[in-house]
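okkk here we go again. third time trying to get the zinc ion bound version out, last two times i messed up the smiles copy paste (missing a bracket lol). double checked this time i swear
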Amino acid sequence: MQHQQEQHLQQQQQRRQHRLPAAAAGEGEPAGAEPPPKPKQQFKFCRMCGGALELTLPDGIWRHVCTQCQYVDYQNPRMVVGTIVQHEGRILLCRRGIEPQRGLWTVPAGYLECGESSAAGAARETLEEAGARVHIDAPYVMFDIPQISQIYLLFRARLAPPFTFAAREPESLEAALFRPEDIPWDSLAFSSVSIALKHYVRDLERGCFSVHSGVIQKRPGSGPNEPGSFQLVDHIQLATPETAPS
Ligand SMILES: [Zn+2]
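finally!!
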């Protein structure tokens, strides 16, 4: 534990040195700058020793620091991994069985676990939510959603033998294959899924899959998929070698 604490303090020091100009190092915010808003989620106790946590602003970013052992409880974005599964020209969607957005449709996806590769996590989520074994073809979209500190990484995939699927409760109420023209656009759960599927259908129509990355900007206070409340910016589109036009 001592070693970890030292490592965290060292990391904190390195980050401070890295981020702040020399004159401001160790002084908190540079003079005249507005401090960033405090994080919505605040934690009370240290996960290492149970001591009280204090919210501090050591390097321009709010940090929870233990008042007893000085452990820095870094909060970092979470990665959501999942698949867009195609089978005979149709796309596999699940109707969510749990909140948030219970009853709405989505692609199989969930949080990446520690010790797991992103592709393995995407395949696992597909089995857990849609009861489907899949072959992962390629990364397809990577969307950052800074406002909710999430990164979405969805892979293109195909059903693998025995080519079956079934909703798995409690995660899903229903699983079904949709032709592109039948996708329930008004009943999709998340902005990321709406944007990913729109690109997917467009790529499918032109017969060339790209890899898309970008940032989803959401209107503060808006719901997970409110029409007109989000947009994709900094969109980068790369044609993949196997599907690039010759
Ligand atoms: Zn502690």
